Amino acid sequence: MSDNGGSSMDLLRSEAMQLSQLIIPIDSAHLAITYLGHLGLIQFNDLNAGKSPFQRTYAAQIKRCGELGRKLRYFKVQMLEAEVEASARSGTRSDLNVDDLEVKFGQLEAEITEIVANGEKLQRNYNELVEYKLVLQKAGEFFHSALSKATAQQREAGSSHGGESLEAPEAPLLEEQELHSDKQVKLGFLTGLVPKAKSMAFERILFRATRGNVLLRLSFVEQPVVDPASGEKVIKNVFAVFFSGERAKSKILKICDAFGANRYPFSEDMGKQAQMMTEVSGRLSELKITIAAGISQRKNLLHEIGQHYEQWNLMVRREKSIYHTLNMLSIDVTKKCLVAEGWSPVFATQQIQDALQRATTDSGSQVGGIFQVLRTKESPPTYFRTNKFTSSFQDIVDAYGVAKYQEANPGVYTIITFPFLFAVMFGDWGHGICILLATLFLLIMERKFSNKKLGDIMEMTFGGRYVILMMALFSIYTGFIYNEFFSRPFELFSRSAYDCRDPSCRDATSVGLIKVHDTYPFGVDPVWHGTRSELPFLNSLKMKMSILLGVAQMNLGIVMSFFNAKFFRNGINIWCQFVPQIIFLNSLFGYLSILIIIKWITGSKADLYHVMIYMFLGPTDDLDENQLFIGQKAIQLLLLLLAFVSVPWMLLPKPFLLKSQHNNRQDGQSYVTLTDESLQSEITHDSHAQEEFVFSEVFVHQLIHTIEFVLGAVSNTASYLRLWALSLAHSELSSVFYEKVLLLAWGYNNLIIRIVGMFVFICATVGVLLVMETLSAFLHALRLHWVEFQNKFYEGDGYKFNPFSFTLVADEDE
Asked: From its record, what is one biological process in GO terms (predicted)?
């Protein structure tokens, strides 16, 4: 464990913490909090919890930082729209302070807002002119067609009437008077564009509103046009409505407004149409150049912002976090000092004092900051100093629950046991190499990926890269033990120790095998693979190995409970919890593990199922051929007696001893000297000493705990058989894919079938064995650690140390 000012890191127990009080002069407070934020080793308590955010001292400054943040978000939106990337954080420090940033952001925002507003206005004018040009083209076609028809009719009439003088074809189409009519009719027309999706309804409403007294002509526009009002691309039709009377015109105008139809002026005179077309085309060219210049100016300005965006963003977020922290401090009655309280590691005391002294010197304050340690019975937060390798393993433990202050940390053992138990289920050194290669890619790209936003799955995979690395290495190791490379055995370390007595025994049974060489030095002899005895042999091996590993890990958990009780000086837990638990577990399953090892060493054919069952059903019966060693029967009787005694030992003494302890405390008979260590023990484990002691509740709790352990000893041992089951499933799946896909396809003398077979084999191997099986084994290993291992000693009811740190502020999402 770290001592004051030490720098050693102990992952087994969390750092010693202290509640400290800081008294900081107001004129150096901002600088002091800044230096403490760079240090990142103090967790401030909120001393103004009863005040609303608006009642706090620095509410105006936080509002000001919020406004700066809003402007930065506005810049970010504009950069995304313009496809301008923000540069990585520059190494050069900016000389700008928050006041300078406020002025600069105001100028930049006003400039960008003006450019954007002008650009939108020009773009709207441009879109209107584009539509106007379409109207001139399409409506001009209407009138040109009508003029052609009129000319043709006049020619026909002229030829039939013998050259009778008629009205010239160049006369206006909508003359205000008709030939051979006494009554004058005034006709008018409107032109514009209407969305194609609304054209049918538009036509129907016009017909009904005017009772059919209109003529509507529609012309389809091939390409979508940008609507000036919405700025979205819409497929539209050009329309021309011919009507008579002002009343009809008023109705048509209202209908156009209702349907979002844009109207544009149009002249029936051919000369004016050509003149308007020329003017519109010229204005479009000018606007196009002007808009391009505006976009270029905006992009240049955003590029300039992008070069400093990350630096400015970090400055604003840091400044806001500083004022948030200052708002957690209380102001003294003289209004000259701020008082802070917070948790910090004991080793950081000198560093905090140095930061306060530096803030006093740099701010030119007349009075220095004061640091003092407070006594408290409040439980401190839990703080483990981890690095990028150990942090992912610690996260696995913290996902179950954060360790109570200075209780034994399972993360130390998880670094080895978690990837090892995974590899027991996954063991195949071919698959392990594939996972190792994928992990090495993540490690090579570590610096690049650390500064990028990854997807959820990729982020999780990259965060656990060192866990996956250990899983891959252990999988290669267990793969060598199982002697499996994509389910195929290899004579890696020497030749097989066995050979067939005659050719008929090969690939049929192991009975005909005779030992001709030395024992295979490491792992399973390759001769077992492919024989009829492969499954019975490997099943027996892996099942017994699973029990041995499970009992060993559960014993480790119980031993950790002893070290917890010893560290916290809890003698009751040692004698009434650790001792009976270790006796009960090893009287049954520890004994079974010893029998397994003896059977392996001696080569006995004793039935261990029979031994364990009749140890309970017939403890005095003779063992006969199931006897593995002399005195086995007497030892079994002794172990059975110890197992039965340990159950009431776990149940009865502890509640009565706790009651006696409580009575002595109440009677004032348990006074002790308040040394630092006894006070620490009192803080961490006797925080509820003043609460009322209810014997019935304590007894029921102990009863539940005893039943849970007794039944759990059986169920947890059986739970470790998942190591055997998943290892068998992985091996058999790999064998099926190899024999029924790859070898089957390779049996055909056809290149296409072989390529398809290879492709299917690779997809099945990657998808099922390297992804799904990896996830399955990972989750089962997680369950074995959380339930079977950690419940023996780990309470996990603490809370994490969350210091004020600029590193954490920089890593937070906006």
From this structure: vacuolar acidification
Alpha-carbon span 499 to 516, nearest angstrom: 6
Rg (CA), the chain: 43
Residue pLDDT, tens place only, 63-80: 999 999 999 999 999 999
Instruction: State the burial class of residue 241 (Cβ atoms within 10 Å of its Cβ: 0-12, 13-18, 19+).
Output: buried
Q: What separation in angstroms does the CA of 707 have from each of 326, 647, 701, 703, 789?
A: 51, 9, 10, 6, 17
Residue 789 predicted with pLDDT over 60: yes
State the pLDDT confidence band at 444, using cuts at 50, 70 and 90. very high
Residue 143: pLDDT band by 50, 70, 90 thresholds?
Answer: confident
User: For residue 89, is pLDDT > 60?
Assistant: no
CB 678 within 8 A of CB 512: no
Rounded CA gap, 358 and 369, in Å? 10
- Three-class DSSP category at 627: coil
Structure tokens at 738: 């190899």
Residue 446, CA distances (Å) to 20, 110, 434, 472 in order: 38, 40, 19, 18
Scanning 427-464, the segments in alpha helix (DSSP H) are 429-444, 446-450, 456-463
Q: Which two tokens stand for residue 86?
A: 């923000």
Q: For the residues 666-679, what does the mean pLDDT come to?
A: 51
> If you write DSSP's letter for every residue of 480-497 in order, what string do you get?
HHHT-BTTB----SS--S
Alpha helices in 503-577 (DSSP H): 534-567, 571-573
Q: What is the mean predicted confidence (pLDDT) over 673-681?
A: 44
Beta-bridge partner residues of 233: 226
Token pair for 252: 């048509």
Give the whole-angstrom CA distance, residue 303 versus residue 470: 44
Burial class of residue 388 (count of CB atoms within 10 Å of its CB; 0-12, 13-18, 19+):
exposed
Q: Alpha-carbon distance 214 to 254, whole Å?
A: 15
- Distance separating alpha carbons of residues 715 and 284, to the nearest angstrom: 82
The helix or strand, by DSSP H or E, that contains position 221, with its residue range, turns out to be none
What is the pLDDT at residue 139? 83
Give the C-alpha distances (Å, rounded to integers) separating 350 from 326, 346, 362, 431, 574: 22, 9, 18, 50, 37
Which neighbouring-strand residues pair with 330? 339
First and final C-alpha spacing in the chain: 37
Which pLDDT value is given to residue 792?
94
Indicate the SS3 state at residue 511. Answer: coil
φ and ψ at residue 338, rounded to 5 degrees = -110, 140
Give the pLDDT of residue 255: 92
Alpha-carbon distances of 370 from 58, 339, 341, 406, rounded to whole Å: 22, 9, 12, 28
Alpha-carbon distance of 58 to 321, in angstroms, equals 11
